[in-house]
Design a protein that fits this description.
This protein has 257 residues and is α+β, with helices and mostly antiparallel strands. It contains 8 helices and 15 strands. The strands form 3 sheets. The chain has an 8-stranded mixed sheet with strand order 4-3-5-6-7-8-9-10, sandwiched between helices. α4 packs across α8. It is globular. It is an enzyme of class 3 (hydrolase). Its EC number is 3.1.3.15. This is Histidinol-phosphatase.
Length: 257
């Protein structure tokens, strides 16, 4: 099945109506994880509520998996996966590198997705017609860079601190082979692979709602998204995305050590 861009725009607008008024507004922040810090805001909860309402009205037989409000009907062949604010830490810090992620899986495969950044007025999306961008500069089809060598690549990771034990040693050796390494940016870094500005994102410990929406955006732009061992990324885990198959293979080998 195909998902229309009009429906994706409606989702983006409904989410933005909840997130934008609360961005840089110094609202209350709760912590979801005892002994650590996993922030959640009213914007997260209300944006997901608005998105779920639209999906349920349009596709009542489809399942939904959301970060803030759990799952419903996930035995369906069609399951929508929602992260209302990917990058809540950036959101509460006033940095516009967060985004609303909504993806659709059919029989477990990510087939359509969108990442909306309402503060910058950007929408990245993928459906049956390919991978596309709408925002400043005008609409265009997304295409990854053709980088094939680690020594010419730009790499993002949330933070090297997420790599533990021997994995950290392998990551450090990997980063030393890279031309430019930067940290943070959450979903925005993955979107930049599709747009041709970033070459690799390596992020351990992702949840399905962190990555499902981004998989088709990157893949339909020419990139590759898997786990570090080359498996499907729809269930999350340690996720590696790269601009080309050759670069992905090189990065995967480097991360294995």
């Amino acid at each position: 099945m195909d998902i229309s861009i009009d429906f994706m725009r409606r989702i983006a607008q409904a989410a933005a109506a909840e997130t934008l008024p609360r961005f840089r507004a110094q609202g209350a922040v709760a912590n979801k994880e005892k002994g650590s810090f996993d922030p959640v805001t009213e914007a997260d909860r209300e944006a997901e509520r608005a998105i779920r309402a639209l999906i349920s009205a349009e596709y009542p037989d489809h399942g939904i998996l959301g970060e803030e409000h759990g799952s419903e009907n996930i035995s369906s062949r069609h399951v929508w996966v929602i992260d209302p604010i990917d990058g809540t830490r950036a959101f509460i810090s006033g940095l516009p590198v967060w985004g609303t992620l909504v993806g659709l899986t059919i029989d477990g495969d990510a087939v359509a997705g969108m990442m909306a950044q309402p503060f910058t007025g950007e929408l990245f999306y993928a459906n049956a017609s390919g991978s596309h961008y709408e925002g400043p500069g005008g609409p265009r089809k997304l295409t990854t860079r053709k980088t094939t060598k680690l020594a010419e690549a730009t790499l993002f990771t949330t933070t090297p601190a997420l790599f533990k034990g021997e994995a950290r040693n392998r990551y450090d050796a990997f980063e030393r082979q890279i031309q430019l390494a930067r940290y943070g940016a959450d979903c925005y870094a993955f979107a930049m692979i599709a747009s041709g500005s970033v070459d690799i994102v390596a992020d351990p410990g992702l949840k399905p709602y962190d990555i499902v929406a981004l998989i088709p955006i990157i893949e339909k732009a020419g990139g590759v998204v898997t786990t570090f061992d080359g498996g499907p990324a729809e269930n999350g885990g340690d996720v590696l995305a790269a601009a080309t198959p050759e670069l992905h293979a090189a990065a995967m080998a480097a991360l294995r050590g």
